[in-house]
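Office hours follow-up: a student asked to see two folded examples consecutively, so here they are.
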Amino acid sequence: MARLNLFLTIATLWLTCLNVAPAFAVAKQTCVSAKCHNDMQKNANVHPKNKSCQFCHKAITRPHPEVGTKTFSSSGTACLECHETVTDFDYLHAPVAAGDCPACHNPHTSKKNFFLKYKEQKLCNTCHNPVISKKDTMIHGKSKEIQCTSCHTQHGSSYPNLLVSEYSSAYFNNYNDKTYALCFRCHKLDLLLYPKTSYNTNFRDGKRNLHYLHVNRPTRSIACKMCHKTHASVQPMLMADKVSFGNWQMPIGFIATKNGGSCTPGCHKAKTYDRTIRRKSRGG
């Protein structure tokens, strides 16, 4: 035994003199200092912060890499060990439901907030068709600033289509203040509250509030999407050129004028409105 201890001591001193790390020192080498993983911490923003690789990955006890060796601690569920609340919703984003967090996030490092792979618009468009086309001249509020998350949640929601607030998918509703809660996160509810107004909305005939006329009804309230496009349009005020009813593309026929406009939709005869004139012949 004494001879063995003497041999180990001499071997260690000999390796040190040669400036070669002994085997037990090599074992302490970190994953990110190894040549094969040295890009894992190339950015200052590293995930998870102040944690070792083994926090997410299994400790490697066999030769690494080894064909067939699964190094991820729990595929599809490892992220939930820290981010358990991202699935606590009635409606889940498809990658979340599939446990595919890396579809949107880089698990190790990123220059983007929340370790996203790309900027928001580019990221969303990797799966979703662009909602804004080159021909669109009017962009809806936050869509213009390329913020899908102004109206949609990233992981899950209590509302269909991952919306952040209630928004009816029907064309006709029994109106209440919550029916279009999503819209009134930005737009003022006043435009629907008063049958007569001189400033709450530009959609008026004289002082007759035409938003109130169309929407503020106990039954058969007309949805915002009946006349307006959601994301972008070639028409002013995001007016739609047509609306789909099954196989029928109902025309809206909207034409803007200096003080109002006109429409010839499939739901009623041609009508005009003018904010500076009040004509008794106006019908509902």
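And the second, which I mentioned at the end of office hours:
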Amino acid sequence: MMPTTSPIGLEQHDAIVTQTGYVPVIDLGSARGQGPEARLAVARTLGTVCETSGFFTVVGHGVPDAAVSDIYEANRKFFALPDEQKTALRSAPGDPLMRGFGREGSVAAATAGAPVAHERALPDLAQTFIYNRLGEPGVARLPAGADPMLATPNLWPDLPGFADAYRRYYALMEELAQEIMRLFALALDLPEAWFDDKIDDHMTNMVANYYPAQPTPPAPGQLRKGQHSDWGSLTVLYQDAAPGGLQVLDKTGRWLDVPCVEGSFVVNIGDLMAVWANDRWVSTVHRVVNPPREHADRERYSIPFFHQPNFDALIECIPTCAGAGNPPRHRAVRSGEYLKDKLRLAFGA
């Protein structure tokens, strides 16, 4: 059960926080098309959450319901295809971003402090399909020396409307992620556009997760997604309400269910945002659990948009998050190489 208390300070923003809890529901509506004071109020609320749980649910985001239903239906049809048709779209061995039907792997193996080494990690009980804007014709603007395989074309199944649904939904997620990043900048006492030139050539993988029914009980310790933190700046997640869902690890060590709110997206910050914020904001560990045995016949779908800064963006402590007695706590990293290392650990990419 979710706790009934909210992160400290959220109670004063009743018009913004529509549901309290460790993963509160935040209405972005007052930040869209209104004045600077309204935007700053939403930004401060997001900042408070990012200092506590690092997870929140957004409504009032402006994403049309039809775009969500279209990509949900596209994924349902894709994952229902015969295995030989899906494996024919297996990501190319040389593609560092793994576009297409995903390889077996374990996200827990790429998380700092993971309980098991990659070679011993149990694979996640999920199938995936990955799309990235860098695989679209004429999009990639890679810096000199970057791996040209980053521009590997996206792979598409022979399903009417599939690619259109993906491209439309991805574009909407780009807009929403940029809006949240601008609110994050305000929350961190930065100019609103501070992150813009660091994400204008972002390299975001959008991943369709399919969690099949489990007629046979999983191996002990094997989950739909093992415990991990996300890697980039932020994640925007669509999840359905099927049993066996997302859980976050709170500061007391309890696993808490993330509720599925109709018409919403779950947002959490990733490791690179924590580096930028010098750990003022936290990248929270989470997992996707198996359904109870009485619901083991239920499938589940989710679509995370793993927002990742530009390949050559230098991620280092931002000016407002360090000072006397609070030096930078992380070494600077380049976004693209960081992501490639994480994918290699998780999937052998």
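Two things to take away from it. The longest helix spans residues 162-187. The chain is about 25% helix and 20% strand.
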